[in-house]
Fold these 2 entries.
Entry 1:
Amino acid sequence: MGYTLVVCEKPDAAKKISEALSGGKAQRFMVEGVTVHKFAKDGENYVVASVQGHVYGLSDPFKERSVYPSFDTEWYPLNLVEKSTRARAARRLEVVNRLARFAAKFVNACDYDVEGETIGFNVLRYARPGSEHSALRAKFSTLTTEELNVAFGRLDKGGAGLARAGRARHLIDFAWGVNMSRMLTRSVNERTKRYRTISVGRVQGPTLSFLTSREREIREFVPVPYWKVHGRFGGENGEFDAECGGRFLVKAEALRVLDDCVGRESTAVRSASVAVSVMPPPPLNTGDLQKEAYRAFGFSPSKTLMAAERLYLSGLISYPRTASQKLPPTIGYNSILRRLAESGRRFEDASEILRSESKPVQGLKEDYAHPAIYPTAGRHPSGTLDAGEDALYDIIVRRFMAAFGPPARQEVLKVDFEVEGHTFRLQGKRTVFLGWMKYYGKYSARRDDVLPKISVGEKLKVLDLKVTERFEEPPPRFSESTLLEKMENESIGTKSTRAGVISTLIRRGYVGGTRLTVTDLGLSVAELIQESAPMLASAELTAVIEKSLDEVEEGKASDVPIVRDALKSIADQLVRFEEDERRDVPLVVGDVSAPPGVTLGKCPICKSGELRIVKSGRTGKRFVGCSAYGSGCRASAPLPQRGTVRPFGACQECSWPVVRVMLGRRPWSLCVNPACPAKGRKKIGL
Amino acid sequence: MTEVCVYHQEAMDRVKAAYPLWVKAYGRLEWKDYLDSVKRNVQTGQWVREIVTLLEGTG
């Protein structure tokens, strides 16, 4: 008798699924060092194996890195096309391939979304051709025993649209990236007469364009002055501040108010109090969670996604890659609330919600595959979470509870005073009923003003008056969170890919800093795109492709014409580039052929160059080098070859730059100076 | 007059366009003092600051 091979996307998911379906009786055995689970259920034998994320990727079979157009692409095991793919991932794939040979049936139990479906489809297709179509699909949103048993009790053949959309997206993105990057690289070579590889992807182009438009506004900003007039008033019930008439664009007018009002008495002429009802925020989807985690903890979108993924694999929350802002009754509101209430004092408000028998508020956005993110209220296997995961879990639970809360009520108070014909306004608000804000706790960002009681006709003393000069401010730089929101609003990228696109722009040195500042390299690449291939900066075109692929996902459209049209757009752009007579015009901004990399600060040796993180063309290893190398400065320093390295100020001992190395769960700081007196004290106290 | 790139030209146009607003705001303001104030202002954009330095140099 053969067995049913269950293919999972991650080892933790395979373990959870085996435990859930076997009632904890699954046997673990090793095949070439890879753990595989085996059990029998209802007379059927199951073997559960997992890969580790994407194990197949597209590649150009000719490997001529400068040749374009290149539309002949094929899927290959990732370990053959990407040096960074670990041997362990290749071994996992080999084990699945071997197990597939003897399997009688197949179940695709990868994450139920486009990427998961694509992973499962590719693994099955190349392991046992035909099985990708005959395989059954397990659809679940949490890794809880209850839901996994339900999911495996009603396996179906859905998901073909997802796989088609996923493969089409990969194909378009690969063709786009390869051809446009090669074209731009050639453009740089012709313009600068120096070799430099330029990389840009389908979503990166428009995203970089948003950033550079903002950067230009900031760099070209001329502040214009204005003035504000503030007064301090004293009445029967205390003192308070009020403002006169918004902005004064002429200084003399502001000073006239001051002259008119000093030493005079004011009268309250109008008082209005408005009660406002504040609805609870909708349940969290991926983008909302990333924005809230950035607002509350400063987590980058990719850090949030990684932590959420770990919470999901631990069975603590539902699937975190979702567009939905809805919580359907099928998730079992009461049982989740009951478990939360029983979990201790931290979420004791859950018992109050249970007693109220309320239903959660629902947002507008939907997702055909998964509900909004919610806690399963399960127990963490090891009983502890790291600080980041715990913080994220806390906000997810509280947002879930907040959805059940009644609207909060606030009172907005406005009082107008007149002094010699000039009107001053006191404005504030206070919360009179917490409602959902009680459950959302510190994350509700409530701010109450202390407002004195003032009646119309009341006389008030003008205690102090002052005119302050201010200047208009440039628009704020994007943070990772606001950029993510912009991408969402412009419908570019997907809930799963947006955070990665931002990280890629940072990794390539096009932008940097917490407040995303476009580097000269980023400005040069944006200019190059605008000059050579404006299509690459078009958010509209990318959004149209995303929308079409969404229709493929939902089974409403075929992927064939979408891929054909996208490839034609690329081909047309390449032809336009060949015909462009201006393609060798030098670029305006910066030097695009300058060495890449993050700038760490002034070189302490030559005092004129800048220390940068550079990559050796010969060995591929990164190190710190001086930008004045060409002028003879030989300052250099080794760097750790693994993990993310970011600038982190200057060393207090030797004034060389300090970098922060992010690897694993414990980042550390390192002075790059090999001869730093602080060496030996491995971790600098920063 | 020194030739500048399109971005610095845009910055220069903005510096010139803002001058009447500053004059109206303060009532009276010499061009030289205006440039000095813009250059010292923390909100001023990098390319504007560079173009102001250029304008100060060329009188």
Entry 2:
Amino acid sequence: MKKLLLALLIVATVATMGFAQVKRIGVSMPSATHGWMGNANWWATRAKTDWEARDKNVKIELKFSGTVNQQVSDIEDLLVKKVDAIVVFPHDTSVTSVVEKAYEQGVYVVVLDRGVSKEGIYDVYITNDDEAYTRKGMEWLAKQMGFKGNLLLITGIPSPIDTIRTDTIKEVCKKYPNIKILDVQPGDWNKQKSTTVMENYLQKYKQIDAVYTADDDMMLGAMQAYKESGRKDIKFFLGGGCLKSVIKEIMDDSNPLVKADVTYSPSVIATSISYGVIGAKGDKLNPYVYQVRALPRRVILPSELVTKANAKDFYVPEAPF
Amino acid sequence: MSLSPSLKKLDLEKYGSLLALGVLFVLASIVGRPYFLRPENLINVMRQASYTGIIALSMTFVIISGGIDLSVGSLAAFVASCGVLFMNLLVKATGGNETLAIAGGVAVMMGLGLCCGALNGLLITLGKIVPFIVTLGTMSIFRYLSLQMANAGEFASHSQRFGEFGMAKLFAFKAGESSISLPVPVAVLLALAFILSFVLTRTRYGRYLCAVGSNARVAQYSAVRVGRVRFWAYAINGLVIGISAALLAARFNTVSTPNFGLSFEMDAIAAVIIGGTAMAGGRGSVWGTVIGVFMLQIIQNMLNMAGLSPYLQGVVKGVVIIGSVYIQRQKQ
């Protein structure tokens, strides 16, 4: 009898061990080259900490890479380590073939943002809403300007994402003929470059009402140039991406030039890691989804307008930037 | 003491880097266990090393000649962009004859690579501008030409088979659980190492190259055409970069102009230096560079498998570069 019990116990233990199999999730993303990506790296680390504390059977491995070549190597290394799911924030679409290899090997694949150049080689694609990012911002700015005045744009690095954003701004402005876009110059998502562009703008244009930059980093650079010039004509600066210091200013209402921001959340990587974990475990996203068990194939996270009213929801004091 | 001290020293100098590679391999097996020794991982390591590795081979020639080439990564991006564009044209023109298109595209990459390398060489020899400055300039020129052509975007190839070629293997067979194979880029790396090593050690050009690198004036007095020898070092480098660019473009089946070949120059130079080639020129070995290339990749792979932060991996890489040069300095 004792032996039988012992045998049962062993069987039970083995069975539970079999059920509670460890799921390993590999994450590959660019290393922190600018503020936004620095925040994204921090969010990835946070998702790792949160999930590993929540579930003993989840192991998450983060790989930050400086170049796309390194990223491909990282993904190959993760595949050798036989991860169950892989979350890829691509440097660019050059990762397509290695992502395809992962998918063919049966790894659960989550791809973000800049994406891959082939369909049907991932389980989930997640991105922020580039169109709404500038549409919401521009609508707000137009209203503040009283639907009239001179506007200057400083855009990011010329790229498909940047084109969508800039085109959306121009489209919104078409609705308000009294708003004049004086100039559009790239600031390369770089604070220093944006400062230089703004200095040139200030030399060239005598009456400026508002400046719209493609992100908060560049907005701070442009504002620096404006402050140094000693001019008093600009009433509004708008960036985007919710840099911590900018959100704090909006929350405290401490800067008359900056009253709003638009989210383009770096936490998208943390959300993606959650999708990877849930997908690898074969769980449902939530109890409200009917019938379909698999996760949605394409997820677009909304861009939201941040003003004094809701700023505290987006203020993350622990985040690095 | 059966060995005479001089023989011992000779052995250490000749096989020192090979010994270091062996030690590193054992270390990696321990640190990166249980993944490092898996055949598929070792094949990955070799393939990952091969793209910058191929460039490092010809970079060895340039450094032996007493020069440097900072433009290799940008040059690779430029020739790969032009090659893929030409290939897409050919796919269209021939009505989908992909074999011809791929051959044409690869030929353009190699030919244009040779021309761009020759341009570097001409500016250095005829223009009498120091190599660092010339290649710093062309590094910027080639990169921004590519960005301009693609509007900072990417050129995707229209040939499915080009992508398959990028993942091709010379042979592959199953050994139990794991599959063993020789990827094409690794085969190319080894073949080029044989050829370039032969040129360096067994031909007149190789001897002239060392002579020019160790003392250009003495070489000139000995009736060596110094300018011509140096010119060919850069031209050969360009050609070899073309080969590497073709393999890398095939692997991705696309050329992303801002990222393609980014910081290749640093990895190539580091591999050459670790491999025992003197930065001041005059002496060096192609096989040493091959060892350097594999050492760098093994270090990265081992730390990656151990799960060390990528930022610390960069620190380790820096320490290894300085450390290996320090040891070589002691030997001199």
